[in-house]
Write a structure and sequence with these properties.
Number of domains: 2
Shape: elongated
CATH superfamily of the largest domain: Spore Coat Polysaccharide Biosynthesis Protein SpsA, Chain A
CATH class of the largest domain: Alpha Beta
Number of helices: 8
Bound molecules: uridine-diphosphate-N-acetylglucosamine, calcium ion
CATH architecture of the largest domain: Alpha-Beta Complex
Length: 446
């Protein structure tokens, strides 16, 4: 859906004291992407006219990689959420329409839920809609005081009368997400005061103002898990778990088999085609693409790689950035592949390191093969031809190439190219000494 007269403000300037971190709170990651990145992506998917991120002065540069070309409004002092939104007034002075306020520390909110929320505001024909949720654990949240769908006011935790401070039963809470008509927002923000427990300009106070002006603001309730905010690391873990649960559900609905969904970790950008089977305890770092019909066996770790259709990886394999595993290839236990093109139908079934290499189709890499890609100063490449056979426990000292259909004898240290069809043999010649062992053992134990 294209919402032409929509602008989105993302609040992210808060200090995040409860994270006890040198990193700004919204840069803590969920599934490998900083929370702010999740919110920016969701905002972008609504195709608004503008996205403005509110940041503290020292955060601007660290936010930039996540905010792209969107404008960053600087809030020089953190005087509260109302003040934060006011910092975007200049950037939005020519904008007329709905202003959707999102929080950088509420990363799980979904685009379709936001669309329904905005639609509900239009349906109610009101300049203010607030997204709420109901919970038994209301402590810490602003409370929505409602009369049916009608929103009367929002009271922050610290401003609750003592007798209401500890919740009893389910309460209506503020998610922080709001949609406000631009025509009303700026005048309302002018009216905010700091006569509250925290001495801040609360954005939430506009609810009461709107109500007094008979603007009929509404509360719109969604499942609390969608608006889970992150204030500390425990919250961060709850959000991570929920994100992973949602991703695995989405994959399963898209024909991916997960044999043990709760044990698999996805990255925000993991791509898995239909008819892929993923075993237990698989970890996907950023940048992984798995094509259809591939199988990832338990305890494999993949990052920055492509696995082509029909390939089988693991168990206990590590596929690192820059690796492409060809169609129907086999990568077995304790094999590490880095920055390498591993050909169609090629096999490395056991205990191997293949780095900075090209492995031809149908090549067979014996157990214990190591590409010696690093001499302590520079990295060099190993080329292995189509159908080549590398005997077990070979060291291929790069730069080196093994020709098509060539063979390397087990236990070789290969320092010179092996031409097509040849045998490379580079190991000490074996000598057998007759009777030696028999005599040795016959001396018996002392
Ligand atoms: C806020 C809401 C509360 C709601 C809760 C939901 C207010 C006054 N309270 O409380 O009703 O239940 O979120 O999670 O709005 N920020 C700025 N500049 C500031 C202050 C905050 O940009 O000066 C940003 C923060 O980075 C954060 C968001 O605004 O992304 C919320 O701030 P936070 O301090 O976490 O508010 P809460 O106390 O959680
Ligand atoms: Ca918060």
């Amino acid at each position: 859906m294209t919402e032409s007269n929509l602008a989105i403000v993302i609040l992210a300037a808060g200090k995040g004291t409860r994270m006890q971190s040198s990193l700004p709170k919204v840069l803590h990651k969920v599934a490998g992407l900083p929370m702010l990145g999740h919110v920016v992506r969701t905002a972008e998917s609504l195709s608004p006219q503008k996205i403005i991120i509110v940041a503290a002065p020292d955060q601007v540069e660290t936010f930039r990689p996540l905010t792209g070309t969107h404008e960053i409004a600087v809030q020089s002092q953190q005087l509260g959420t109302g003040h934060a939104v006011r910092c975007t007034e200049n950037a939005l002075k020519n904008f007329s329409g709905d202003i959707l306020v999102l929080y950088g520390d509420v990363p799980l909110i979904r685009a379709n839920v936001l669309q329904e929320f905005i639609a509900a505001k239009h349906k109610a024909n009101t300049p203010l809609a607030v997204m709420g949720f109901r919970t038994l654990h209301a402590y810490g949240f602003g409370r929505l005081v409602t009369d049916g769908d009608k929103l009367l006011e929002i009271i922050e935790q610290k401003d609750l009368p003592a007798e209401h401070a500890n919740s009893n039963g389910e309460e209506n809470c503020n998610s922080g997400i709001m949609c406000i008509s631009s025509s009303q927002l700026w005048p309302w923000l002018q009216k905010l005061q700091t006569n509250n427990a925290q001495g801040e300009y609360y954005l939430t106070d506009i609810a009461k103002i709107a109500c007094h002006e008979d603007k009929n603001p509404i509360a719109y309730f969604v499942p609390g898990i969608l608006t889970q905010g992150v204030n500390d690391r425990f919250d961060l873990s709850k959000v991570e778990v929920q994100y992973q649960k949602q991703r695995s559900y989405d994959f399963m609905m898209n024909a991916v088999t997960l044999l043990s969904p709760t044990t698999v970790t996805f990255s925000y950008d993991t791509q898995i085609a239909p008819d892929v089977i993923i075993g237990a305890n698989v970890v996907f770092g950023p940048g992984v693409v798995i094509e259809s019909g591939a199988e990832i066996l338990p305890f494999s770790h993949l990052e920055g790689c492509t696995v082509r259709s029909g390939a089988r990886i693991g168990p206990f394999a590590r596929i690192r950035p820059g690796a492409t595993i060809g169609q129907n290839a086999r990568i077995g236990n304790f094999v590490e592949i880095k920055n390498a093109q591993f050909g169609d139908g090629a096999k490395a079934n056991h205990l191997s390191y293949i780095g900075d290499a090209t492995v031809g189709a149908d090549a067979n890499i014996g157990a214990g093969t190591i590409t010696c890609n690093y001499d302590g100063i520079k990295k060099s490449r190993t080329e292995i031809g189509t159908g080549a056979f590398i005997g077990s426990n070979s060291a291929l000292v790069a730069p080196v190439s093994i020709g098509e259909g060539a063979m390397v004898a087990a236990g070789s240290v290969i320092t010179k190219d092996v031409e097509s069809g040849a045998l490379g043999l580079a190991r000490a010649t074996q000598k057998n000494i007759a009777h030696w062992a028999k005599e040795f053992f016959s001396k018996g134990k002392i």
